[in-house]
Design brief:
The complex is a heterodimer of chains A (340) and B (184). Chain A contains 3 helices and 24 strands. By secondary structure, chain A is mostly beta strands. Chain B is elongated. Classes of the chains: A mainly beta (340), B alpha+beta (184). Chains A and B meet through helix 3 of A and helix 2 and helix 3 of B.
Chain lengths: 340, 184
């Protein structure tokens, strides 16, 4: 009898240990470590934008040509140089890559570069509240600082003008090539029918079109506006909408660039979409959605810290490919038309 | 120099000892006063790591959660189309209930001037689900965020929400500074 009790005890202890181990494994497997698990609240409390992130494949007319890492911890801005060169700014550097993604040069910047432009053989780098000019990798000029609360977010140069978007003060500053401030564009002016730039987040982008007009995103009004260099508003286009034709969210597009023929490539944060608009502002096609940008779900971020860096910069190279700087993963993605 | 004015080594050391003892006592008293205020801790949510999973609304031991949404006005863009207020596909840009994201209608929208609107939380209606926080984080500046309201929190030793928080955003902080606010 005694051996039986002993065996029974051993078997009971073994069963308890096995049950505990199974329970532990199940608990670990079912642990919700991301917050993405099912909610105990009803469907009305679920924030779901997956449906909006789904893009009709017929609309996507671009394919990814190449991708490479910038090697920067915090990538900020991208620009296309001559001969397919790619300039990526961030940390305290501007890194230069050739068309294959091989790094060819590096410029150390005294500060965090926030935007850059290449024009007339010169590289213009915005460093928060000032502009530095480089020839090759040598700094040739450092323009005076703007206002204390300035935050330069974009530069565009054409002709004798250099337009600098100051997101901190919701204005586009017009400089001449020598660095003298000659005008302010986009400030509210009812007499000239200028509604004023609305910049809720630190994104304000500019470009100069082939027609010579300055284009400035007005993210708070979800449109792009065209100005003469004297600050007269010529026209605007864009509409708020969650559908693919419009700009979604509270403040978009955060970045855009222009093709040689006058078309636009835009980037929207939130629902990450790289879209092509025709020169008249009508919707064209899609270059990339969240999936093409390498994000499985609709959102690349969950916390405000992650989402704050989600304003990808875009540029167009001389072969009319679309360059996208992923500021979350610090990679450059180059998209070309599928027909190429 | 008179003999009674001279200071020998023993009296000098005694005097120094008194001073050091006094300073030590004052320091100890000050430390104990300060420490007794800061030793107590309370639960709070780190808004920079919170993923607005919804557990705050369902796991608090209170019938109505101690967690509420709060608004950092200095961070807000005062957007006309706020995605913390409007659903992802609003039928119109009005305050009509069907356009609102919040299932309990806990966010108020008030016109300031073209094109700016102010948003405020009606705490009595907020259940801390974090749906508006998700919208604001994804599309906006993240000015809406969740905080444990200490006029409601029981400060349980083992917080039921902290036990299931997937991002580790729930933490103990000094009771003297019981909130973690966002800065612009």
């Amino acid at each position: 009898m005694k051996p039986f009790v002993s065996h029974f005890k051993i078997a009971a202890v073994a069963a308890v240990v096995a049950a505990a181990a199974i329970a532990g494994i199940v608990a670990v497997v079912r642990l919700d470590t991301t917050g993405g698990g099912p909610k105990r609240l009803g469907d009305a409390f679920v924030y779901d934008i997956d449906k909006l992130a789904a893009i009709d494949p017929q609309l996507i007319t671009y394919r990814m040509l190449r991708t490479f890492e910038t090697g920067l911890a915090e990538s900020r801005a991208i620009a296309a140089g001559p001969g397919g060169a790619v300039y990526a700014a961030g940390d305290r550097q501007v890194r230069i890559f050739d068309k294959t993604g091989r790094r060819t040069d590096l410029i150390e910047i005294d500060g965090t570069p926030t935007c850059l432009a290449i024009s007339g053989g010169r590289l213009y780098v915005g460093v928060r509240d000032r502009v530095e000019v480089y020839s090759g990798t040598q700094r040739t000029e450092a323009w005076p600082k703007a206002a204390a609360d300035s935050l330069f977010s974009s530069i565009a140069a054409a002709g004798g003008d250099v337009f600098v978007a100051d997101a901190g003060n919701r204005v586009v500053l017009r400089y001449n090539r020598q660095g003298s401030l000659v005008g302010r564009i986009g400030e509210r002016d009812p007499e000239r029918n200028v509604p004023g730039l609305v910049v809720p987040s630190p994104y304000l982008d500019v470009a100069v079109g082939p027609d010579g007009l300055l284009r400035a995103a007005n993210p708070g009004r979800l449109c792009i506006e065209a100005y003469t260099s004297d600050g007269y508003l010529e026209f605007s286009w864009g509409k708020p909408s969650s559908s693919i034709e419009g700009f979604c969210g509270c403040c978009n597009p955060v970045n855009f660039a222009m093709f040689a023929g006058g078309r636009y490539v835009t980037f929207e944060k939130g629902l990450q979409r790289v879209k092509i608009y025709n020169a008249d502002g009508s919707f064209g096609t899609v270059a990339a959605g969240p999936q093409q940008l390498g994000y499985d779900g609709a959102r690349p971020c969950r916390t405000v810290t992650e989402c704050g860096s989600g304003g990808f910069d875009v540029a167009v190279d001389d072969e009319q490919n679309v360059l996208v700087l992923d500021t979350v993963r610090n990679v450059v993605r180059i998209f070309c038309e599928k027909t190429k | 120099m008179k003999a009674d004015e001279t200071t020998d080594r023993r009296s000098f050391l005694r005097r120094i000892g008194r001073w050091l003892g006094g300073i030590a006592m004052a320091g100890s008293a000050g430390y104990l006063c300060f420490d007794s205020r800061s030793r107590g801790t309370v639960w709070q949510i780190d808004p920079y790591t919170c993923v607005a999973c919804g557990n705050c609304a369902t796991h608090c031991v209170l019938q109505e959660s101690a967690v509420k949404c709060v608004h950092a006005y200095a961070v807000c863009g005062y957007c006309r189309i706020c995605f913390g207020f409007f659903g992802p596909e609003p039928a119109g840009i009005t305050e009509a209930a069907e356009n609102q994201l919040c299932p309990t209608g806990a966010i108020n929208r008030k016109y300031v001037e073209d094109p700016y609107y102010q948003y405020s939380i009606d705490e009595a209606l907020c259940n801390g689900c974090g749906k508006c926080v998700e919208g604001c984080n994804t599309f906006g500046n993240g000015s809406l965020f969740l905080q444990v309201r200490h006029d409601r929190c029981l400060n349980c030793n083992e917080c039921a929400i902290a036990a299931v928080c997937p991002s580790g955003a729930f933490k103990r902080i000094p009771a003297g500074r019981p909130y973690l606010f966002k800065e612009p």
